Amino acid sequence: MFALRFAHFTDPHLPLPPDGPGWTELMSKRLFGYLSWRRRRHRIHRPEVLAALLADIRAQGPDHLVCTGDLANISLPEEFERARVWLEATAAPQDLTLVPGNHDALVPVPWARGLGLWEPWMRGDPGTEPEGAPGEGGLFPSLRVRGAVAFIGLSSAVPTAPLLATGRVGHPQLRRLEALLRDQGAAGRYRVVLLHHPLADGTVRARKALTDRAAVRAVLARAGAELVLHGHAHCARFAALPGPLGPIPSLTAPSASAVAHGRYDAARWSLVAVRRTPDGWRTAVTVRGWEASAGAFGTLGHYDLLMPAQTGAKEEGVAERAA
């Protein structure tokens, strides 16, 4: 039986550069984010917790890593440069799939000095890229096929007005998303949709929500998917989204660098193991979380998800040979 094990973590929020931003860089929405970081967020997002999470992931030996955004805090050019170094130390581009978050697009930044520095980890497999220049709709949705699993990445990261953290996918991505989902489903692959903002209503407040989430859900309801992974909520959430063959599970986790604070849990990550059974797909999820008393990560829970195989899908061996 085919099996793939992959790790999902989100919202690492790497520390701001020690010198901090200049005054000209703060003459924008960045000012609010910077004040928030100085007041409290630097005490919540701890680099030692993130380092322990990555060490725990490596110890579990997954086949692939997935990160659903928010490496940055206020979208400084130096943050993108430092995050590029962090990505290089974390995993090779072919071994880590990344989608951006709202903090990675807090304000407009030229592609070459901003998200373009992370392009190797966001770009799809060769020959699968949409038409257009990167940063102008030419990178997402991305498609990465690993074995019989298809990772489909969306960008919901758009600059917004102060005090807003909303996201948007947009019609060009939605049109290609539906085609990708149908094609990968027909090929018999397990389809994982990745984006930063949640799709279920009520997961986050309206000022932080995905504005076109209903349109994305409508695509999933028509074309289907096996799993949705997102970030942004900074807490553990499970939702069931409508699909053509039954509910599509949607999962997230707290920030990968967070200590417990207020109503928010400490850092967690999920080890997702996928295999095909005679009745469809079986997804085994192991949740690993930061235990401050032990100064280490431990297993917090384990559960299985059962999903029917796609109607009209090819045999498993065909999907594996095509991967």
How does this model look, in words?
The chain is an alpha/beta fold. The chain has a single domain (3-322), classed as Metallo-dependent phosphatases (Purple Acid Phosphatase, chain A, domain 2). 25% of the residues lie in helices and 24% in strands. The protein contains seven helices and twelve strands. It has helices at residues 30-44, 47-60, 77-90, 119-122, 171-186, 213-223, 316-322; strands at residues 3-9, 64-67, 96-98, 142-146, 149-153, 190-194, 227-229, 237-241, 248-252, 268-277, 280-291, 296-308. The strands form two sheets. Strands 3-2-1-10-11-12 form a six-stranded mixed beta sheet. It has a six-stranded mixed beta sheet with strand order 4-5-6-7-9-8. The longest helix has 16 residues, at 171-186.
Return the domain count: 1
Shape type: globular
**Portion in helices:** 25-40%
Rg over alpha carbons:
19 Å
CATH class: Alpha Beta
- Structural class determined from secondary elements: alpha/beta
- Count of β-strands: 12
* CA-CA gap between termini: 15 Å
Strand content: 15-25%
- The strand order across the widest sheet is 3-2-1-10-11-12
Number of helices: 7
The averaged pLDDT comes out at: 92
CATH architecture title: 4-Layer Sandwich
Poorly predicted runs: 311-323
Order of helices and strands: EHHEHEHEEHEHEEEEEEH
For this structure, the CATH topology is Purple Acid Phosphatase, chain A, domain 2
What does the main sheet amount to? 6 strands, mixed
EC number: 3.1.-.-
Family: Belongs to the cyclic nucleotide phosphodiesterase class-III family.
InterPro entries: Calcineurin-like_PHP, CNP_phosphodiesterase-III, Metallo-depent_PP-like
Keywords: Hydrolase, Iron, Metal-binding
